[in-house]
Design brief:
With 267 residues, this protein is mainly beta. The protein has helices at 42-45, 73-79, 186-190, 238-244, and strands at 3-4, 17-21, 25-28, 32-33, 38-41, 59-65, 68-69, 81-88, 92-93, 96-97, 104-105, 117-123, 126-131, 141-146, 151-154, 159-164, 171-178, 183-184, 196-200, 206-210, 219-222. The protein has a single domain (25-262), classed as Jelly Rolls. It is globular. It holds the Pfam family GPI.
């Protein structure tokens, strides 16, 4: 028996997929394809945590890469697009929220670029954290606070991590990715994590602590902006946007098509 997120608490992604809990995973409708989800465990991400010895849920999150309507499978492959979905467990990692360890997207052999990612929040509360580099100087750092229906875009080459801002409920999000997706962890692991650690205070509010393994930086906390220049339509899911115009997200596998958009990018 699976526990399923009630429709009333979930943003409509525009196709028939539902996150499940206990165990975590996804249920696909009859017209939807998708793989068996893969679990990421606490031991997989310990080295990137502020306290690597902390406790927390054994399965931190579950991920299914390459989902969508069966009728779109061929065009997704043709356009080199991939839609992925992720659910995070409720709870905490010691004083830290449930989160990914942080990475940069690898250089794609398809485009020769590190590729962007288009996030859409479905359940829970998210913080999409991003920094310009994973070098000693992390550059500009942003924490973008997002709720169901919000879209956040991470540009090419930036290190980023996804954080669950509400420990009482799971976080689920979908994302447009390059079909040759891959992750580079070296810089983040070298610095023992991202440049700013999210930590719950005694009242359950996330505060930020600078990671001393980086040079001094400033963190900007903000709400998501609008992205009309990148094809995002308010009130319309990113899958429905693709369905209306399959080429609207071509800049995900081919970021050079909108090269100017990535210069001095602000999320």
């Amino acid at each position: 028996m699976y526990a399923i997120m009630p429709e009333s608490k979930m943003y409509d992604p525009g196709f028939d997929i539902r996150p499940t809990f206990e165990p975590m995973g996804f249920m696909y409708g009859e017209d939807v394809f998708g793989p068996e989800p893969e679990n990421r465990r606490l031991d997989d991400i310990r080295k990137s945590l502020m306290d690597p010895g902390t406790g927390g849920p054994d399965i931190v999150y579950t991920i299914a890469m390459d989902v969508g309507r069966k009728q779109h499978r061929a065009i997704l492959e043709e356009l080199h697009l991939l839609f992925g979905v992720v659910t995070y467990a409720a709870g905490k990692l010691g004083r830290e929220p449930i989160r990914s360890q942080g990475h940069i997207h690898k250089i794609s052999p398809y485009s020769g670029w590190s590729t962007p990612e288009v996030y859409e929040i479905w359940t829970g509360e998210a913080i999409i954290y991003m920094q310009e580099t994973a070098e000693d100087d992390p550059g500009r750092c942003f924490a973008v606070y997002a709720k169901p229906g919000d879209v956040v875009i991470v540009p090419p080459n930036w290190a980023h991590a996804t954080i669950s801002a509400n420990s009482r409920e799971p976080l689920t999000f979908g994302a447009w990715c390059d079909r040759d997706y891959g992750f580079v962890y070296d810089g983040v692991r070298k610095h023992k994590g991202i440049a700013w650690f999210p930590v719950f205070d005694e009242e359950g509010i996330i505060r930020w602590q600078a990671n001393p393994h980086y040079e001094t930086s400033q963190l900007v906390c903000k709400s998501p902006r609008q992205y009309p220049d990148l094809g995002i339509e308010p009130g319309k899911s990113i899958y429905q946007t693709f369905e209306s115009n399959p080429e609207v997200f071509l800049y995900v596998p081919r970021p050079q098509l909108v090269a100017a958009a990535w210069e001095n990018f602000e999320p």
